[in-house]
Amino acid sequence: MAFVFTRVDDRAIHGQTVTLWSKIYQNSGILLIDDEISNDPMMRRIYKNAAVGVNVYIYTVEEALQKAKQAAASEKSYLLIARTPLVFEQLYKGGVDIGKKLTLGPVSQSEGRKLLAQFTSLSKDEIAACNFLSEQGLEIVFQNIPTTPAVDWKSIRIEP
Amino acid sequence: MIGILIISHGPLAEGILESSRFFYDDHRCIRTQVLAKEDDPSAFFQTLKHACEAFEDVEDILILTDIPGGTPANTAQMLMQDNPHIRLLSGVNLMMALDAVLSREMYDLDALAQHCRQSAIDSIQLIGGQEYAETDDVNAEF
After folding, report:
1. Considering the domain boundaries, does residue A160 fall inside one?
2. What is the CATH number of the domain that holds B77?
3. B132 occurs within a structural domain
4. How much is the pLDDT for A17?
5. Cβ-defined contact of A147 to B142 (cutoff 8 Å)
6. How many domains does chain A have?
7. Is the pLDDT of residue B18 over 70?
8. Which range of residues forms the domain containing residue A10?
9. Residue of B134, B135, B142 with shortest CB distance to A78
10. Helix, coil or strand: residue B113
11. CB distance A145–B24 less than 8 Å?
Protein backbone atom coordinates (compact mmCIF):
# COMPACT_ATOMS: atom_id res chain seq x y z
CA MET A 1 0.00 0.00 0.00
CA ALA A 2 1.14 3.50 -0.67
CA PHE A 3 0.33 6.19 1.86
CA VAL A 4 -3.46 6.37 2.13
CA PHE A 5 -3.44 9.98 3.27
CA THR A 6 -0.75 12.63 2.84
CA ARG A 7 -1.21 15.95 4.57
CA VAL A 8 0.44 19.29 5.16
CA ASP A 9 -0.48 20.61 8.60
CA ASP A 10 1.67 23.03 10.56
CA ARG A 11 0.27 21.78 13.84
CA ALA A 12 1.61 18.36 12.80
CA ILE A 13 -0.61 15.96 14.75
CA HIS A 14 -3.56 17.37 16.69
CA GLY A 15 -7.23 16.80 17.51
CA GLN A 16 -8.52 16.98 13.98
CA THR A 17 -5.91 14.54 12.73
CA VAL A 18 -6.49 12.12 15.55
CA THR A 19 -10.27 12.20 15.69
CA LEU A 20 -11.17 12.68 12.06
CA TRP A 21 -8.58 11.83 9.45
CA SER A 22 -7.01 8.84 11.14
CA LYS A 23 -10.47 7.30 11.52
CA ILE A 24 -11.54 7.90 7.93
CA TYR A 25 -8.28 6.50 6.61
CA GLN A 26 -7.80 3.26 8.55
CA ASN A 27 -4.11 2.93 9.19
CA SER A 28 -1.36 1.14 11.06
CA GLY A 29 0.38 4.35 12.00
CA ILE A 30 1.30 7.93 11.21
CA LEU A 31 4.69 9.02 9.86
CA LEU A 32 5.53 12.59 10.80
CA ILE A 33 8.45 13.99 8.83
CA ASP A 34 10.02 17.05 10.40
CA ASP A 35 13.67 17.82 11.14
CA GLU A 36 12.94 20.16 14.03
CA ILE A 37 10.44 17.92 15.82
CA SER A 38 12.53 14.82 15.22
CA ASN A 39 15.54 16.39 16.92
CA ASP A 40 13.60 17.77 19.90
CA PRO A 41 13.01 15.14 22.63
CA MET A 42 10.16 17.11 24.22
CA MET A 43 8.32 17.62 20.94
CA ARG A 44 8.87 13.98 20.00
CA ARG A 45 7.28 12.95 23.24
CA ILE A 46 4.25 15.22 22.81
CA TYR A 47 3.54 13.99 19.29
CA LYS A 48 4.13 10.36 20.24
CA ASN A 49 1.41 10.78 22.84
CA ALA A 50 -0.87 12.69 20.50
CA ALA A 51 -2.69 9.81 18.91
CA VAL A 52 -4.46 7.33 21.14
CA GLY A 53 -3.91 3.78 19.96
CA VAL A 54 -2.07 4.95 16.85
CA ASN A 55 1.65 4.41 16.31
CA VAL A 56 3.42 7.66 15.56
CA TYR A 57 6.83 7.50 13.86
CA ILE A 58 8.89 10.67 13.68
CA TYR A 59 11.73 11.15 11.20
CA THR A 60 14.02 13.77 9.80
CA VAL A 61 13.72 14.25 6.04
CA GLU A 62 16.99 12.39 5.62
CA GLU A 63 15.79 9.41 7.66
CA ALA A 64 12.46 9.50 5.86
CA LEU A 65 14.11 8.93 2.49
CA GLN A 66 14.63 5.37 3.73
CA LYS A 67 11.83 4.90 6.27
CA ALA A 68 8.97 6.46 4.28
CA LYS A 69 10.06 4.33 1.32
CA GLN A 70 9.77 1.24 3.51
CA ALA A 71 6.35 2.29 4.82
CA ALA A 72 5.12 3.01 1.29
CA ALA A 73 6.21 -0.49 0.24
CA SER A 74 4.49 -2.15 3.22
CA GLU A 75 1.28 -4.15 2.94
CA LYS A 76 -0.11 -2.00 5.72
CA SER A 77 -1.53 1.50 5.33
CA TYR A 78 0.03 4.61 6.78
CA LEU A 79 -0.62 8.33 6.97
CA LEU A 80 2.13 10.77 6.02
CA ILE A 81 2.27 14.21 7.61
CA ALA A 82 4.62 17.18 7.32
CA ARG A 83 4.34 20.79 8.39
CA THR A 84 5.32 22.18 5.00
CA PRO A 85 5.00 21.00 1.39
CA LEU A 86 8.76 21.51 1.02
CA VAL A 87 9.21 18.20 2.82
CA PHE A 88 7.02 16.38 0.31
CA GLU A 89 8.93 17.91 -2.58
CA GLN A 90 12.18 16.63 -1.04
CA LEU A 91 10.74 13.17 -0.44
CA TYR A 92 9.31 13.01 -3.96
CA LYS A 93 12.62 14.03 -5.49
CA GLY A 94 14.30 11.44 -3.25
CA GLY A 95 12.19 8.71 -4.84
CA VAL A 96 9.57 8.25 -2.10
CA ASP A 97 6.07 7.37 -3.29
CA ILE A 98 4.16 9.91 -1.18
CA GLY A 99 0.76 8.91 -2.56
CA LYS A 100 -1.48 10.20 -5.33
CA LYS A 101 -3.10 12.99 -3.41
CA LEU A 102 -1.81 15.73 -1.12
CA THR A 103 -4.21 17.44 1.27
CA LEU A 104 -3.32 20.91 2.48
CA GLY A 105 -4.63 21.51 6.00
CA PRO A 106 -4.06 24.42 8.35
CA VAL A 107 -0.83 26.35 7.86
CA SER A 108 -0.68 29.59 9.79
CA GLN A 109 0.10 32.93 8.28
CA SER A 110 3.64 33.87 9.14
CA GLU A 111 6.22 36.15 7.57
CA GLY A 112 6.56 35.45 3.89
CA ARG A 113 3.41 33.35 3.77
CA LYS A 114 0.28 34.37 1.89
CA LEU A 115 -3.24 33.21 2.74
CA LEU A 116 -4.45 30.98 -0.12
CA ALA A 117 -7.42 29.19 1.42
CA GLN A 118 -9.43 29.58 4.59
CA PHE A 119 -6.84 27.92 6.82
CA THR A 120 -3.80 27.58 4.60
CA SER A 121 -1.01 30.07 4.00
CA LEU A 122 2.07 29.25 1.94
CA SER A 123 5.35 30.94 1.04
CA LYS A 124 6.68 31.35 -2.50
CA ASP A 125 8.90 28.31 -2.08
CA GLU A 126 6.01 26.26 -0.72
CA ILE A 127 3.77 27.33 -3.62
CA ALA A 128 6.55 26.30 -6.01
CA ALA A 129 6.78 22.92 -4.26
CA CYS A 130 3.04 22.38 -4.68
CA ASN A 131 3.18 23.43 -8.32
CA PHE A 132 6.02 20.97 -8.85
CA LEU A 133 4.08 18.11 -7.24
CA SER A 134 0.94 19.08 -9.16
CA GLU A 135 2.93 18.92 -12.41
CA GLN A 136 4.12 15.44 -11.44
CA GLY A 137 0.48 14.34 -11.45
CA LEU A 138 -0.38 14.55 -7.76
CA GLU A 139 -3.87 15.76 -6.95
CA ILE A 140 -3.56 18.61 -4.47
CA VAL A 141 -6.51 19.91 -2.47
CA PHE A 142 -7.16 22.30 0.38
CA GLN A 143 -9.25 20.60 3.03
CA ASN A 144 -9.27 21.26 6.74
CA ILE A 145 -11.73 18.68 8.04
CA PRO A 146 -13.34 15.82 6.11
CA THR A 147 -16.85 17.27 6.28
CA THR A 148 -15.92 20.47 4.45
CA PRO A 149 -15.57 20.35 0.66
CA ALA A 150 -12.10 19.99 -0.81
CA VAL A 151 -10.86 22.86 -2.98
CA ASP A 152 -8.66 21.92 -5.93
CA TRP A 153 -5.18 23.46 -6.01
CA LYS A 154 -5.60 24.20 -9.70
CA SER A 155 -8.79 26.18 -9.09
CA ILE A 156 -6.94 28.72 -6.94
CA ARG A 157 -5.44 31.63 -8.81
CA ILE A 158 -2.05 32.30 -7.32
CA GLU A 159 -0.37 35.58 -8.14
CA PRO A 160 3.36 35.10 -8.51
CA MET B 1 -30.82 7.20 10.85
CA ILE B 2 -29.52 7.49 14.39
CA GLY B 3 -29.98 10.76 16.25
CA ILE B 4 -27.62 11.81 19.03
CA LEU B 5 -29.05 13.55 22.08
CA ILE B 6 -26.70 14.87 24.78
CA ILE B 7 -28.33 15.57 28.14
CA SER B 8 -26.68 16.92 31.28
CA HIS B 9 -26.84 18.57 34.65
CA GLY B 10 -26.48 22.21 33.59
CA PRO B 11 -24.73 23.42 30.42
CA LEU B 12 -22.21 20.58 29.93
CA ALA B 13 -24.19 19.15 26.99
CA GLU B 14 -24.29 22.51 25.23
CA GLY B 15 -20.58 22.99 25.89
CA ILE B 16 -19.76 19.65 24.32
CA LEU B 17 -21.85 20.50 21.28
CA GLU B 18 -20.13 23.87 20.99
CA SER B 19 -16.66 22.31 21.32
CA SER B 20 -17.50 19.71 18.70
CA ARG B 21 -17.67 22.56 16.16
CA PHE B 22 -13.88 22.35 16.02
CA PHE B 23 -14.31 19.00 14.35
CA TYR B 24 -17.67 18.93 12.68
CA ASP B 25 -19.86 21.47 10.93
CA ASP B 26 -23.07 19.61 10.33
CA HIS B 27 -25.05 19.35 13.55
CA ARG B 28 -28.43 18.31 12.21
CA CYS B 29 -28.18 14.85 13.78
CA ILE B 30 -27.14 16.05 17.21
CA ARG B 31 -29.25 17.84 19.80
CA THR B 32 -28.90 18.77 23.45
CA GLN B 33 -31.23 19.02 26.40
CA VAL B 34 -30.03 20.37 29.71
CA LEU B 35 -31.57 20.13 33.15
CA ALA B 36 -31.08 23.59 34.62
CA LYS B 37 -30.68 24.11 38.36
CA GLU B 38 -34.00 25.93 38.60
CA ASP B 39 -35.90 23.32 36.55
CA ASP B 40 -38.44 21.02 38.14
CA PRO B 41 -36.85 17.57 37.80
CA SER B 42 -40.26 15.91 37.51
CA ALA B 43 -41.00 18.00 34.41
CA PHE B 44 -37.80 16.77 32.76
CA PHE B 45 -39.54 13.66 31.46
CA GLN B 46 -41.80 15.68 29.17
CA THR B 47 -38.90 17.93 28.16
CA LEU B 48 -36.83 14.92 27.21
CA LYS B 49 -39.72 13.30 25.38
CA HIS B 50 -40.15 16.43 23.27
CA ALA B 51 -36.42 16.58 22.60
CA CYS B 52 -36.53 13.02 21.26
CA GLU B 53 -39.57 13.78 19.11
CA ALA B 54 -37.91 16.88 17.67
CA PHE B 55 -35.49 14.82 15.56
CA GLU B 56 -36.36 14.62 11.88
CA ASP B 57 -35.86 11.41 9.87
CA VAL B 58 -34.56 9.62 12.93
CA GLU B 59 -35.68 6.23 14.10
CA ASP B 60 -33.08 5.35 16.71
CA ILE B 61 -31.67 7.66 19.34
CA LEU B 62 -28.42 7.37 21.25
CA ILE B 63 -28.60 9.50 24.39
CA LEU B 64 -25.30 10.57 25.92
CA THR B 65 -25.37 11.78 29.49
CA ASP B 66 -22.99 12.74 32.26
CA ILE B 67 -23.45 10.83 35.52
CA PRO B 68 -25.01 7.39 35.68
CA GLY B 69 -27.81 7.54 38.23
CA GLY B 70 -28.27 11.31 37.92
CA THR B 71 -31.67 12.82 37.11
CA PRO B 72 -30.97 13.18 33.37
CA ALA B 73 -29.90 9.51 33.18
CA ASN B 74 -32.78 8.29 35.34
CA THR B 75 -35.32 10.25 33.34
CA ALA B 76 -33.91 8.89 30.10
CA GLN B 77 -34.38 5.39 31.45
CA MET B 78 -38.03 6.14 32.12
CA LEU B 79 -38.36 7.16 28.50
CA MET B 80 -36.71 3.93 27.41
CA GLN B 81 -39.44 1.88 29.11
CA ASP B 82 -41.78 2.55 26.22
CA ASN B 83 -39.25 3.04 23.46
CA PRO B 84 -37.01 0.18 22.28
CA HIS B 85 -35.22 2.56 19.89
CA ILE B 86 -33.23 4.38 22.56
CA ARG B 87 -29.88 3.55 24.18
CA LEU B 88 -28.26 5.52 26.96
CA LEU B 89 -24.52 6.00 27.46
CA SER B 90 -23.18 7.79 30.53
CA GLY B 91 -19.81 9.43 31.14
CA VAL B 92 -20.07 11.65 28.08
CA ASN B 93 -16.90 13.39 26.95
CA LEU B 94 -15.94 15.20 23.75
CA MET B 95 -14.48 12.10 22.14
CA MET B 96 -17.64 10.11 22.80
CA ALA B 97 -19.81 12.83 21.29
CA LEU B 98 -17.55 13.21 18.24
CA ASP B 99 -17.45 9.53 17.57
CA ALA B 100 -21.22 9.28 17.94
CA VAL B 101 -21.67 11.85 15.18
CA LEU B 102 -18.86 10.62 12.94
CA SER B 103 -19.60 6.91 13.19
CA ARG B 104 -23.37 6.91 13.35
CA GLU B 105 -23.79 5.89 9.73
CA MET B 106 -21.41 2.97 10.09
CA TYR B 107 -23.19 1.04 12.85
CA ASP B 108 -26.60 0.02 14.11
CA LEU B 109 -27.74 1.50 17.42
CA ASP B 110 -26.25 -1.14 19.72
CA ALA B 111 -22.93 -1.32 17.89
CA LEU B 112 -22.69 2.49 17.83
CA ALA B 113 -23.26 2.62 21.58
CA GLN B 114 -20.49 0.05 22.15
CA HIS B 115 -18.14 1.84 19.78
CA CYS B 116 -18.69 5.22 21.47
CA ARG B 117 -18.25 3.71 24.92
CA GLN B 118 -14.86 2.28 23.94
CA SER B 119 -13.77 5.44 22.19
CA ALA B 120 -14.57 7.54 25.27
CA ILE B 121 -12.64 5.16 27.51
CA ASP B 122 -9.64 5.11 25.15
CA SER B 123 -9.50 8.89 25.20
CA ILE B 124 -8.81 8.92 28.92
CA GLN B 125 -5.06 8.71 29.24
CA LEU B 126 -2.71 9.42 32.09
CA ILE B 127 0.35 11.22 30.81
CA GLY B 128 3.35 11.89 33.03
CA GLY B 129 4.50 10.48 36.35
CA GLN B 130 6.25 7.56 34.75
CA GLU B 131 9.48 7.01 32.88
CA TYR B 132 9.07 7.79 29.22
CA ALA B 133 10.47 5.14 26.93
CA GLU B 134 11.56 6.54 23.58
CA THR B 135 10.76 4.17 20.75
CA ASP B 136 13.34 3.25 18.17
CA ASP B 137 11.73 4.74 15.07
CA VAL B 138 14.85 4.46 12.95
CA ASN B 139 14.71 0.66 13.23
CA ALA B 140 10.93 0.38 13.04
CA GLU B 141 9.53 -2.16 10.61
CA PHE B 142 6.44 -1.47 8.55
Report:
1. no
2. 3.40.50.510
3. no
4. 82
5. no
6. 1
7. yes
8. 5-155
9. B142
10. helix
11. yes
